[in-house]
Amino acid sequence: MKHIVYVSQAEHPFSAWELANLLETSRARNVSDGISGLLIYRLNPEYNRGNFVQAIEGPEAEIDSLWSRITRDNRHHTIVVVQEGSIEARMFDGWSMGFKNADAEDLAGFAGFSDLGSDTFWSDISPASAAGALELLRNFYDGA
Ligand SMILES: Cc1cc2nc3c(=O)[nH]c(=O)nc-3n(C[C@H](O)[C@H](O)[C@H](O)COP(=O)(O)O)c2cc1C
Known about the structure:
Distance between the termini: 24 Å
Number of helices: 5
Order of helices and strands: EHEEHEEHHH
Strand content: 25-35%
CATH topology: Alpha-Beta Plaits
Number of domains: 1
Oligomer: single chain
Shape: globular
Structural class: alpha+beta
Bound molecules: flavin mononucleotide
Helix content: 25-40%
Protein backbone atom coordinates (compact mmCIF):
# COMPACT_ATOMS: atom_id res chain seq x y z
CA MET A 1 0.00 0.00 0.00
CA LYS A 2 0.96 3.56 -0.61
CA HIS A 3 0.05 6.92 0.84
CA ILE A 4 0.37 10.56 -0.14
CA VAL A 5 -0.08 13.55 2.15
CA TYR A 6 -0.30 16.98 0.52
CA VAL A 7 -1.52 20.52 0.91
CA SER A 8 -3.07 22.71 -1.79
CA GLN A 9 -4.88 25.98 -2.33
CA ALA A 10 -8.52 25.98 -3.39
CA GLU A 11 -9.14 27.78 -6.67
CA HIS A 12 -11.66 29.92 -4.78
CA PRO A 13 -13.22 29.79 -1.30
CA PHE A 14 -15.51 26.74 -1.44
CA SER A 15 -19.18 26.90 -0.53
CA ALA A 16 -20.70 24.21 1.69
CA TRP A 17 -22.40 22.85 -1.42
CA GLU A 18 -19.10 22.59 -3.34
CA LEU A 19 -17.45 20.79 -0.43
CA ALA A 20 -20.37 18.37 -0.11
CA ASN A 21 -20.26 17.70 -3.83
CA LEU A 22 -16.52 17.02 -3.78
CA LEU A 23 -16.91 14.65 -0.84
CA GLU A 24 -19.82 12.76 -2.30
CA THR A 25 -17.89 11.94 -5.49
CA SER A 26 -14.68 11.18 -3.61
CA ARG A 27 -16.27 8.85 -1.07
CA ALA A 28 -18.17 6.82 -3.67
CA ARG A 29 -15.09 6.46 -5.83
CA ASN A 30 -12.77 5.68 -2.91
CA VAL A 31 -15.02 2.92 -1.62
CA SER A 32 -14.82 1.11 -4.95
CA ASP A 33 -11.06 1.76 -5.24
CA GLY A 34 -10.18 0.62 -1.69
CA ILE A 35 -8.88 4.08 -0.80
CA SER A 36 -9.16 5.67 2.63
CA GLY A 37 -8.06 9.04 3.97
CA LEU A 38 -8.96 12.39 5.42
CA LEU A 39 -9.49 15.83 3.93
CA ILE A 40 -9.24 19.04 5.92
CA TYR A 41 -10.55 22.28 4.45
CA ARG A 42 -9.65 25.58 6.03
CA LEU A 43 -10.84 28.97 4.84
CA ASN A 44 -8.26 31.46 6.04
CA PRO A 45 -10.45 34.56 6.31
CA GLU A 46 -7.53 36.95 6.62
CA TYR A 47 -6.38 35.98 3.11
CA ASN A 48 -9.79 34.92 1.78
CA ARG A 49 -8.04 31.73 0.74
CA GLY A 50 -9.33 28.16 0.89
CA ASN A 51 -6.76 25.48 1.74
CA PHE A 52 -6.75 21.70 1.68
CA VAL A 53 -4.72 19.15 3.65
CA GLN A 54 -5.36 15.58 2.50
CA ALA A 55 -4.05 12.09 3.14
CA ILE A 56 -4.90 9.33 0.68
CA GLU A 57 -3.91 5.69 1.20
CA GLY A 58 -4.61 2.41 -0.55
CA PRO A 59 -3.34 0.04 -3.24
CA GLU A 60 -0.50 1.58 -5.23
CA ALA A 61 -2.17 1.46 -8.66
CA GLU A 62 -5.37 3.07 -7.32
CA ILE A 63 -3.41 5.77 -5.50
CA ASP A 64 -1.41 6.54 -8.65
CA SER A 65 -4.60 6.80 -10.67
CA LEU A 66 -6.28 9.00 -8.03
CA TRP A 67 -3.20 11.17 -7.81
CA SER A 68 -3.23 11.87 -11.52
CA ARG A 69 -6.90 12.94 -11.25
CA ILE A 70 -6.25 15.10 -8.16
CA THR A 71 -3.28 16.88 -9.74
CA ARG A 72 -5.28 17.62 -12.90
CA ASP A 73 -8.30 18.93 -10.97
CA ASN A 74 -8.60 22.67 -11.56
CA ARG A 75 -10.55 23.23 -8.33
CA HIS A 76 -7.18 23.59 -6.58
CA HIS A 77 -3.56 24.48 -7.33
CA THR A 78 -0.19 24.97 -5.57
CA ILE A 79 -0.14 21.29 -4.65
CA VAL A 80 2.76 20.51 -2.28
CA VAL A 81 3.42 16.88 -1.34
CA VAL A 82 4.71 16.67 2.23
CA GLN A 83 4.93 12.88 2.40
CA GLU A 84 4.58 9.92 0.07
CA GLY A 85 5.68 6.32 0.06
CA SER A 86 4.75 2.80 0.97
CA ILE A 87 2.97 2.03 4.24
CA GLU A 88 2.46 -1.18 6.17
CA ALA A 89 -0.92 -0.29 7.65
CA ARG A 90 -3.63 2.28 7.00
CA MET A 91 -3.75 5.34 9.24
CA PHE A 92 -7.38 6.19 8.36
CA ASP A 93 -8.89 2.74 8.21
CA GLY A 94 -12.64 2.77 7.70
CA TRP A 95 -12.78 6.32 6.38
CA SER A 96 -13.53 6.43 2.64
CA MET A 97 -12.71 10.14 3.04
CA GLY A 98 -13.05 11.72 6.45
CA PHE A 99 -13.70 15.44 6.35
CA LYS A 100 -13.16 18.39 8.66
CA ASN A 101 -14.06 21.97 7.83
CA ALA A 102 -11.55 23.44 10.28
CA ASP A 103 -11.59 26.86 11.92
CA ALA A 104 -8.86 28.69 13.83
CA GLU A 105 -9.79 27.01 17.10
CA ASP A 106 -9.51 23.53 15.58
CA LEU A 107 -5.98 24.29 14.39
CA ALA A 108 -4.64 26.07 17.47
CA GLY A 109 -1.62 24.32 18.92
CA PHE A 110 -0.64 22.34 15.82
CA ALA A 111 2.98 23.17 15.04
CA GLY A 112 3.26 24.68 11.58
CA PHE A 113 -0.49 24.42 10.94
CA SER A 114 -2.07 26.92 13.32
CA ASP A 115 -1.85 29.57 10.57
CA LEU A 116 -2.87 27.18 7.78
CA GLY A 117 -3.37 29.19 4.61
CA SER A 118 -1.42 32.32 5.51
CA ASP A 119 1.38 33.61 3.25
CA THR A 120 3.91 32.46 5.89
CA PHE A 121 2.39 28.99 5.91
CA TRP A 122 2.70 28.77 2.13
CA SER A 123 6.27 30.04 2.02
CA ASP A 124 7.35 27.64 4.81
CA ILE A 125 5.58 24.44 3.75
CA SER A 126 7.93 21.60 2.82
CA PRO A 127 8.42 17.88 3.43
CA ALA A 128 9.72 18.94 6.85
CA SER A 129 6.05 19.65 7.66
CA ALA A 130 5.08 15.99 7.25
CA ALA A 131 5.05 15.13 10.95
CA GLY A 132 2.89 18.17 11.73
CA ALA A 133 0.49 17.37 8.89
CA LEU A 134 0.07 13.77 10.05
CA GLU A 135 -0.37 14.83 13.65
CA LEU A 136 -3.13 17.21 12.59
CA LEU A 137 -4.87 14.64 10.39
CA ARG A 138 -4.58 11.87 12.97
CA ASN A 139 -5.95 14.14 15.67
CA PHE A 140 -9.25 14.48 13.79
CA TYR A 141 -9.33 10.73 13.14
CA ASP A 142 -8.61 9.81 16.76
CA GLY A 143 -11.01 12.44 18.10
CA ALA A 144 -13.96 11.32 15.99
C1 LIG B 1 -8.89 18.66 -2.78
C2 LIG B 1 -9.45 17.54 -3.60
C3 LIG B 1 -9.50 16.24 -3.08
C4 LIG B 1 -10.00 15.18 -3.82
N1 LIG B 1 -10.05 13.92 -3.28
C5 LIG B 1 -10.54 12.89 -4.02
C6 LIG B 1 -10.58 11.57 -3.49
O1 LIG B 1 -10.19 11.29 -2.36
N2 LIG B 1 -11.09 10.59 -4.30
C7 LIG B 1 -11.54 10.82 -5.56
O2 LIG B 1 -11.98 9.89 -6.24
N3 LIG B 1 -11.53 12.06 -6.07
C8 LIG B 1 -11.04 13.10 -5.34
N4 LIG B 1 -11.02 14.36 -5.87
C9 LIG B 1 -11.68 14.58 -7.16
C10 LIG B 1 -10.85 14.16 -8.34
O3 LIG B 1 -9.93 15.19 -8.64
C11 LIG B 1 -11.78 13.90 -9.56
O4 LIG B 1 -12.54 15.02 -9.85
C12 LIG B 1 -12.72 12.73 -9.28
O5 LIG B 1 -12.01 11.61 -8.81
C13 LIG B 1 -13.50 12.30 -10.55
O6 LIG B 1 -12.60 12.06 -11.58
P1 LIG B 1 -13.11 11.77 -13.07
O7 LIG B 1 -14.14 12.81 -13.41
O8 LIG B 1 -11.88 11.85 -13.91
O9 LIG B 1 -13.71 10.39 -13.02
C14 LIG B 1 -10.49 15.43 -5.14
C15 LIG B 1 -10.42 16.72 -5.67
C16 LIG B 1 -9.92 17.77 -4.91
C17 LIG B 1 -9.89 19.15 -5.50
